[in-house]
Specification:
By secondary structure, the protein is an alpha+beta fold. It is built from 6 helices and 7 strands; from the N terminus they run H-H-E-E-E-H-H-H-E-E-E-H-E.
């Protein structure tokens, strides 16, 4: 009888050890994942075509720059390969504004400006904590990443971007570095700040 109690107690306690562990997703991450699922439209974005200069924790794209944490290898690769760059995010934010705003006065005002892109200018911004979201990566040829975007002009707030990279030659065995070096940016999304 003592053996039976010991065996059942051991079994009961081992269920918690061998059970599946799931990573808890924050409400913010749930919202951006839901936005991704609802608004996904594949598009091919060009890599940066100018000169890229990397120094320490900063990458310069002509006259604009991004900084990153030295320990963040994925962000470093994305920047050095020219997949993400300030001019891309400037154009993205301007187009997002034009697509989403319903205020005709703001749109008219934007058209009257000498340089309408100036209000959306991205420069001296820090990208950090780039992590892959395997649950959104549908095949070995695509990977979805979450990136934190911090602009000092926004105070202590950060914005989350989701990007999708596609590498037509990737397999399950392809390293992250090779995947990124041979990929194309096929989707970008800024979290909705409603």
């Amino acid at each position: 009888m003592k053996l039976l109690y010991t065996l059942s107690l051991s079994l009961l306690l081992s269920v918690n050890i061998f059970g599946q562990k799931t990573e808890k997703i924050s409400l913010r991450d749930k919202a951006i994942i839901e936005q991704y699922k609802n608004e996904y439209k594949k598009k091919n974005y060009k890599r940066f075509e100018g000169k890229i200069v990397a120094t320490g924790t900063e990458v310069q794209f002509t006259n604009k720059s991004f900084s990153y944490d030295k320990s963040d290898k994925i962000t470093s690769l994305l920047l050095k390969e020219g997949l993400l760059y300030p001019q891309l995010l400037t154009d993205y934010q301007m187009q997002k504004f034009l697509d989403e705003t319903t205020d005709k006065t703001q749109k008219r005002f934007l058209k009257l400006q000498k340089d309408p892109r100036a209000g959306f200018d991205v420069n001296n911004v820090k990208l950090s904590n780039t992590t892959e979201l395997p649950s959104l990566s549908s095949s070995p040829k695509t990977k979805v990443f979450k990136i934190n975007y911090k602009d000092n002009k926004l105070g202590n707030n950060s914005i989350v971007y989701l990007i999708e990279l596609t590498n037509k030659n990737a397999t399950k065995e392809t390293s992250m570095e090779d995947f990124i070096k041979n990929s194309t940016l096929t989707y970008i999304q800024q979290e909705r700040l409603d």
